[in-house]
Amino acid sequence: MLTTVLRILIAKRVKPFIFERKDDVSLTYRSPTIGVYVHIPFCRSLCPFCPYYKVLYREEIVERFKSALLKEIEIISSKYRDKGIDSVYFGGGTPALIIDHLPKITSRLRDNFDIKGDFAIELHPLDLTERNLKILKEIGFEMISIGVQSFSKRCLDALGRKEDIQTVKENLSLVKAFNFKTVDIDLIFGIPSQTLETLEEDFRIAVDFGATQISAYPFIDFSFLKNRERSLSKKEKRIMLAQLTKIANSIGFERTSIWTFAKKNSQRYSSITRDNFIGFGPSASSLGDNSFKINTFSLEEYISSLEKKKLPPSLVLEFDIYSRGAYWLFWNSYNLDINRDSFFRLFGIELEEVFYWQLRFGEFLGLLKQYEKGYRLTEKGAYYFHLVEQVYTHKYIDKVWSLQRAKFPPARITI
Ligand SMILES: C[S@@+](CC[C@H](N)C(=O)[O-])C[C@H]1O[C@@H](n2cnc3c(N)ncnc32)[C@H](O)[C@@H]1O
Ligand code: SF4
Questions:
Q1: Fewer CB within 10 Å, N side or C side of the chain?
Q2: What band does 120 get if pLDDT is binned at 50, 70 and 90?
Q3: What pTM was estimated for this model as a whole?
């Protein structure tokens, strides 16, 4: 219901969005710079709460995956020779499981693209070894994001994570010496059995280990996963989010998005909220001028297409100016800042020409406040956006990903 109302009011669209399966698609980009995301789909074990596309690590498939990825980089980069790359994010999965292959992959990216921005990578706490951190630094990774989730054994048990907390802490203590520009630590709140005290402690421990950013995600119970327990209630999550904001302010961290808090003047770790990006790897998404594309969720299909020198099959959603603008508005609201210049740079048209009365209405409801560069979300706006983002995740991401994971994914998905 809510997503339908927002679709009509903001994307000015009565009919649902339609994704269609297509082969060998590449997108267009007007902007002189683009972001890059590389998805490495291997994990040591599969955590029951995690919706991302991944398979158990198997040595014998890694070589084939790497060749396919290098081929995909080659094919795609040949179409964007004139573009600069302003950020490169490696995510997963657990990219460091193929640490010995990362030098080859990063140098293929550097050889094929004009890379101007930093390299960033997601790490599992068990990836934090001297050797791994040294290699990452040597090949130019300056931003890391560590998926701790919680330092409480009860919470990790509820999530189905088995790592030993003492080991996690010992590993984290290695990080400071490497002087990464950005150290993000991921936490989850609203985990069954979590209390305000354990959450507060999680935040403080993460900062003591040198986190320059804390990403605190509300626990989302995806329909296609087998979580043993339900997440805490909406009200409990509301109290927890308010408490996180309070602790962050008290230690001089700023709220940099609905769910992230960062040290003042530090560089943000943020892979999804970019204006446009190219995704490599199975399940990776790409955002172009007028379309959004999601690569196949089958590792085998991904590899076999690229072995035939073809881009993997993908689901493609075509945008018009309003739905593309709504996508932009969504992620900029997530970042709490709706900036007129940045809208104009991307669309070549004034923000208010496209969303005049929606912005007025947001102000009237006390969700937005104008400032010289555009609009900021108020505290009330941030709370409602936290709710909208979860509804959106359940209605859109949950549906598309669960259908994509099916053995025979449909050729068309309506959302
Ligand atoms: C790709 S995942 C994990 C990266 C890394 N492999 C790890 O396990 O540490 C990125 C982040 O998404 C968050 N996440 C995953 N599943 C979630 C869920 N069901 N609800 C809320 N946050 C979730 C976690 O905080 C996680 O660290
Ligand atoms: S949370 Fe991390 S380690 Fe666990 S399944 Fe997801 S990507 Fe893999």
A1: N
A2: very high
A3: 0.95
